[in-house]
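Much of the work behind modern protein science is quiet bookkeeping, done one molecule at a time. The fold becomes a row of whole numbers, each drawn from a learned catalogue of backbone shapes. The protein below has been through that process, and both of its lines are reproduced in full.
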Amino acid sequence: QHGALNVRQSRALLWLAGSRVRPGPYDLAARAVDIAPTALAALDFPRIDGLDASGRSSTERGVDPDVYLARQDGRVLEEILDFDEKPPERLYFFLLDGIHPTELEDRLESDPDALPNLRRLRRRAAVLRSGSIVNFPSITWPSHTAIATGVWCGHHDVVNPSYYLRDVGEPVSPQGQQLYTEGFASPGVESLYEAFRRVRGCRSFSVAIHAPFGRGADHAVLEGRNLGHRPRLKELTRELAVDESGRWAEDGAESTARESRLDTRGTAQILELLDRDDLPAPDFVYHELAVTDGAGHHYGPHSDGLRDALDETDRRIGRVLDALEERGLADGTLFVLTGDHGMAPQQVELRANPARHIEKIGLAGFVAEPMIWLRDLAVEAERAGDGRTARVRVRAHDGPLPGDSDAENGGLEGAEVSVSVVRSARGGSPDPLAHGRTGPGGVFGFATPAELDTSEIRIAVRAEGFNPRHLGLDGSVDGADTDLRGRLYG
């Protein structure tokens, strides 16, 4: 229902409201990675000598400091900002999981009395009519990390809900693990939480409310940092349960009911933290609201169930806005309302996973839809100058893995090597020439008749857990290796 490139799944809503924001509708091609630098620019954070999307620092590019984060793929959406106004003091993200911008706009237009608290924000918001272009794959963990760092997943390293680490030869699953996942992101990127601490030091207090990426946040329950007073949190959770729709239990929508209760607990966390005398008011909050995603999955993205989830979310947003206003914090807060991805209607009963086709055709690799990591061999072949001998060196394409028999020099010991002669002028079947296995260093040596041309000698290499390789002693690649497209698509 999401993860793909299509326009329903690759867009999420994006509003910004508060001081320095020019309210109104905008037709900008905004991206998820633009959100963080735009917010920091509005807050008057300093530009630093960090890396831009090219991977080079400002100094390396010969310009003055021009980014707001250690690495920044996004740009500042200056079109929606008025730098003559006083900057806001605080930043509050409401993240409505799985909501497409047109779905929310349709509800606001078709039902004038619905979503009163979202309307409070919209009246003074810059509304990106096409929303933001989200990370690809358009799915939770990569997308949240992109929003909170200002870089695409190819740079922050959380590239899929589950993925394969080539350097250690192991799969990992942040989305399956859910807890303690901030360490999966690259240390070379900077989170918004870390940027607040860098600029404001010990005065900064940042909060991640059930955010899938909370590295650097002082309060982040999913990372085991819970500053809440537990008895009070339990009491608030019971009180706030009134916001939950009874529909989920009536319909047997168990996953949606769990996400609804998760949102209740999250709202209790922020209200409890705002009410504390021993803690400062947070200057950055990233507040994940998940029930819209759960309802979109269970009922579909254009359903009464999703409308009920929006009503429920609106009630929670209203409680937060009221709490901030009561404490005199609302006027000094920049609000960002966004999402991690959209959602498209699909026939989920088909349970389609075309990525697993590579297993059906016998390719070796790791599959975590929609992504594929092939396990390939790197083969080097060389003939001696006198034409009497040759050698083949075999190694894992990704390099030696921990525990490899010959990890020191990168060779793959024990790979099966078959050498044959193909006399194209004569036709007929190949004649076997040599057969054996690689020894230390991943090397296999064999004799070559001097009268044979190098182009007539063909090599096949196989090793357990890897895709085979077929090549000529002259380095040419055989059709069995070049026809990957045909094997995948017919």
Summary: Residues 406 and 441 are 6 Å apart (CA to CA).
